[in-house]
Design brief:
Rossmann fold, alpha/beta, seven-stranded mixed sheet
């Protein structure tokens, strides 16, 4: 659904109507509570192979489930996948816990989620950044191209060299969606200001560009970013999970180079040493979506209709400029506000082959 994010306040009586009691937590999980919540509702999350502390969607999803635990008094625990061989067994283990709700994260878990959802129709699932079609699976999707459009416009407006860059961990829709929006935002700035800022690393028309091939090897991110810097790029958007930290490391070694983070506010999630080179972040408010969906499930209103985060409903956003606020002219900031309003209103339509 493309509706606005709903506030998830739920009466205590509704919480008492939670669907099923859960079995004791598997010993291999990480959880914030040692025993099932008194109201009997529990939830399990399964990470993709990037692990829990990925400074990306695994981390944001778990933070959302922890918020739901605090808000609703439920038992929430996470099964951490460290490789592809962990994925399907972890989903099976999550279902076998007996919990009413299982949250999976990323395209790697699509097949395992569908298989478990088919085999366990009474269990409700949600999957982040992927579409799985089943009556008991809710896709949690984000139109990140909208916020990346703003990031591209910002990058073009602050670049001193006239060259910016982006790269991904893999050529997958949740990744290239960011890159498409970024390229279009740069093009919009060029059209408005009569400039010729060039984007390295992504050809939207060909849907092809620069990828590291994984989301964990920081050194690959540093090497690729260094090649962009060598070509003159001074603002880089990595869409590659932990690999993006390598991009930040490379930028830190070169005066005048900035990074735009993705998924969450890198100012809060990256090591503090990178704050001086962080221009902004393209955020997916995954945590808020998870809280809403868990609350709906507790209240008996679970739906398999996709949740799609947009600028209009607050599901995606451009983070504050933090320490770099002084490098963003007031006029450029005002232009970004106007673009956000136009995209939210539908006056400007940001399009991508990967739009959810």
């Amino acid at each position: 659904m493309r509706g606005a994010l709903l506030k998830t306040g739920i009466l205590a009586g509704a919480v008492a109507l939670a669907l099923t009691a859960c079995a004791p937590a598997p010993s291999s999980t990480t959880g914030a509570s040692a025993s099932p919540a008194a109201n009997g509702y529990c939830a399990r999350m399964v990470t993709n192979s990037g692990g829990l502390d990925d400074r990306s969607f695994n981390q944001s999803s778990w933070e959302g489930l922890q918020k739901a635990q605090q808000q609703f008094g439920i038992d929430a625990q996470v099964l951490v996948s460290t490789g592809e061989t962990d994925l399907a067994p972890n989903v099976t283990q999550a279902v076998d816990s007996g919990c009413a709700f299982v949250l999976t994260v990323g395209y790697e878990l699509a097949d395992a989620t569908l298989a478990s959802a088919t085999a366990s129709p009474s269990t409700h699932f949600a999957i982040v950044d992927e579409t799985v079609t089943a009556p008991n699976v809710k896709p949690i999707l984000f139109d990140t191209a909208q916020a990346s459009y703003l990031a591209g416009y910002l990058a073009a407006g602050t670049s001193k060299t006239g060259k910016v860059a982006t790269f991904g961990g893999g050529n997958q829709p949740p990744v290239t969606l960011f890159m498409d929006g970024f390229v279009d935002g740069v093009a919009k700035y060029n059209a408005v200001h009569g400039t010729g800022v060039v984007v390295l690393g992504w050809d939207k028309a060909a849907q092809d560009g620069s990828f590291t091939g994984d989301f964990e090897d920081i050194n690959k991110g540093k090497t690729l970013t260094q090649s962009f810097i060598d070509q003159g790029a001074d603002v880089i958007l990595p869409v590659a999970g932990q690999v993006g930290e390598g991009a930040a490391s490379a930028a830190l070694e070169h005066d005048g180079v900035s990074i735009i983070w993705v998924d969450n506010d890198g100012y809060d999630t990256l090591p503090a040493q990178y704050r001086p080179i962080l221009l902004t972040s393209v955020m997916k408010n995954t945590g808020d979506a998870v809280v809403q969906i868990v609350g709906d499930d507790i209240g008996g209103s679970f739906s398999a209709d996709p949740f799609v985060g947009t600028l209009a409903n607050g599901g995606v956003a451009l983070a504050p400029f933090h320490d770099r606020a002084g490098s963003v002219p007031a006029a450029l900031s005002a232009e970004l506000d106007a673009l956000k309003a136009d995209i939210s209103a539908g006056t400007i339509v940001v399009q991508s082959p990967s739009t959810p």
